[in-house]
């Protein structure tokens, strides 16, 4: 249990560790906290030319919004996962073409499990890189 007090307002948080992820929850919401890559690694495009779409939490797939071969834009919903009675829309990190969809509605998924894979498209030609 963690209590944070700011300007006379107290909020109690429940904290749980799961490997390198720390879960923090309060008032019906939960957040996964993990160490981020250094800013220089993120800025250099270390993610490559494809984007695995990963589950932000352990949960159950509620909907799959794309199929292999579909074209998506960055930020477009790919899969909806339900966890702790909340739905999370998991979006494509890059614009491109859906290469694979690895889940189906009703399937249980783990934290960081790959749900789908998006291959980035060349902005000039639209071809996959």
UniProtKB/TrEMBL annotation:
<feature type="compositionally biased region" description="Low complexity">
    <location>
        <begin position="38"/>
        <end position="47"/>
    </location>
</feature>
<dbReference type="InterPro" id="IPR011053">
    <property type="entry name" value="Single_hybrid_motif"/>
</dbReference>
<dbReference type="InterPro" id="IPR050709">
    <property type="entry name" value="Biotin_Carboxyl_Carrier/Decarb"/>
</dbReference>
<feature type="domain" description="Lipoyl-binding">
    <location>
        <begin position="44"/>
        <end position="119"/>
    </location>
</feature>
<feature type="region of interest" description="Disordered">
    <location>
        <begin position="38"/>
        <end position="60"/>
    </location>
</feature>
<dbReference type="InterPro" id="IPR048429">
    <property type="entry name" value="MCC_alpha_BT"/>
</dbReference>
<dbReference type="Pfam" id="PF21139">
    <property type="entry name" value="BT_MCC_alpha"/>
</dbReference>
<dbReference type="InterPro" id="IPR000089">
    <property type="entry name" value="Biotin_lipoyl"/>
</dbReference>
<dbReference type="InterPro" id="IPR001882">
    <property type="entry name" value="Biotin_BS"/>
</dbReference>
<dbReference type="Pfam" id="PF00364">
    <property type="entry name" value="Biotin_lipoyl"/>
</dbReference>
<protein>
    <recommendedName>
        <fullName>Lipoyl-binding domain-containing protein</fullName>
    </recommendedName>
</protein>
<keyword id="KW-0092">Biotin</keyword>
């Amino acid at each position: 249990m963690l209590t944070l007090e700011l300007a006379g307002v107290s909020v109690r948080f429940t904290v749980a560790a799961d490997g390198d992820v720390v879960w923090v929850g309060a008032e019906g919401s939960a957040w996964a906290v993990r160490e981020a890559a250094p800013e220089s690694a993120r800025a250099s495009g270390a993610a490559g030319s494809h984007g695995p779409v990963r589950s932000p939490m352990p949960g159950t797939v509620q909907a799959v919004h794309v199929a292999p071969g579909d074209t998506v834009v960055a930020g477009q919903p790919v899969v909806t996962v339900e966890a702790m009675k909340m739905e999370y829309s998991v979006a494509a990190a890059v614009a491109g073409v859906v290469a694979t969809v690895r889940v189906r509605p009703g399937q249980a998924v783990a934290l960081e499990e790959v749900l789908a894979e998006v291959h980035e498209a060349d902005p000039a030609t639209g071809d996959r890189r």
